[in-house]
Automatic annotation (TrEMBL):
PANTHER family xref list: 4-CARBOXYMUCONOLACTONE DECARBOXYLASE FAMILY PROTEIN (AFU_ORTHOLOGUE AFUA_6G11590) (PTHR34846)
Name this protein carries in UniProt: Carboxymuconolactone decarboxylase family protein
Start and end residues of each Carboxymuconolactone decarboxylase-like domain: 52-131
Coiled-coil region(s): none
Segments traversing the membrane: none
SUPFAM superfamilies hit by this protein: AhpD-like
Length: 193
């Protein structure tokens, strides 16, 4: 990756609007990782740069992560599928440990990263994997995948799943465009060609 395009903002450099976004990103504590100088890692510095849209975006992220109707395993599987599709090392770095903590099998996580067959045993996870794959491939769901995902997760779950795919795709684009690196000392993430 080429050099980072924006120098991360330190907390002492923030204006009032940016401090409000930082406060929201800091709830719950530990939600966002920081560098030793207090600047935010990952996509979150970009949210500070444009605090009005950043506030809305962080609200969507918080809703998806902390108040979602999606089961945790479904949410993390879907996030990893988006990260692998966009080859977003930072998203993978942030969410692979969450997927493991949620109990997704190592073999399934490895299959997502390497582009192997993603065949969860759980009905909702299977429906979500198929739906996310089709959304990423075509930007739409056919009637069969819509019926499977609403049958497994309900209408609210199906809508949230499409929101999640859009949200993490947007973050992947920002991470790539802004050339945001993995944190110092993080293991590289390899996606096969």
């Amino acid at each position: 990756m080429t050099q980072r395009r924006l120098r991360p903002l330190r907390p002492d450099e923030l204006d009032a609007e940016q401090r409000e976004v930082l406060a929201a990103l800091s709830d719950p504590p530990g939600r966002v990782q920081r560098d030793p100088d207090g600047s935010l890692q990952g996509p979150f510095d970009a949210m500070l740069r444009a605090p009005r849209s950043g506030a809305a975006l962080q609200g969507v992220g918080a809703a998806l992560r902390y108040r979602s109707v999606l089961p945790e395993r479904v949410r993390e599987l879907a996030t990893l599928l988006v990260a692998a599709h966009h080859r977003s090392a930072y998203e993978w770095h942030a969410h692979a440990p969450l997927a493991a903590a949620a109990g997704l099998p190592d073999e399934l996580v490895a299959a997502v990263r390497t582009g192997g067959p993603v065949e969860p045993h759980d009905r909702a996870e299977r429906a979500a994997a198929a739906a996310v794959g089709q959304l990423l491939e075509t930007g739409d769901l056919d009637d069969e995948n819509w019926a499977a995902i609403t049958g497994a997760l309900g209408e609210a779950g199906a809508v949230e799943l499409t929101t999640l795919v859009g949200y993490y795709s947007l973050l992947a684009m920002q991470l790539r465009t802004l050339r945001v690196p993995l944190p110092n000392g993080a293991a590289p993430v390899d996606f096969p060609a």
